[in-house]
Prior knowledge:
The chain is α+β, with helices and mostly antiparallel strands and 123 residues long. Helix content is 42%, strand content 15%. Strands 2-1-3-4 form a 4-stranded mixed β-sheet, sandwiched between helices.
Amino acid sequence: MIKGDQVILIDGYCNLCDRLARFVRKRDKKKKFTFISLQSAAGQLWLNKFGLPRDDFDTAVYIRGDRYFLKSSAILNIVKDMEGFWGLFYVFMLVPVFIRDPVYSLVAKLRYRIFGRYDSCKY
């Protein structure tokens, strides 16, 4: 298993997820984030470690130390931990999760149709 304090598990076939990874990497000057495909062996080990479903590729998982965050909470915690003004977007945590997560899930459900997908895993 890859060791790291800040691990982001994403769908390795998803164009939107790849764009997120490129966006974060470009701004991650200290190289503190590690990206791993949910479908990979390492991704499966991380999911297993936290008792998360190993066949749900419709969510991002952000692991910080011994804690994990899912869906909209994952994205908002990632931007919180990014350098610069991006942490200001963390204010959206004030929006209740029962509102945030259905919006996240809708985008996740439509992501291949809207953004496309790769034929092979990128991570």
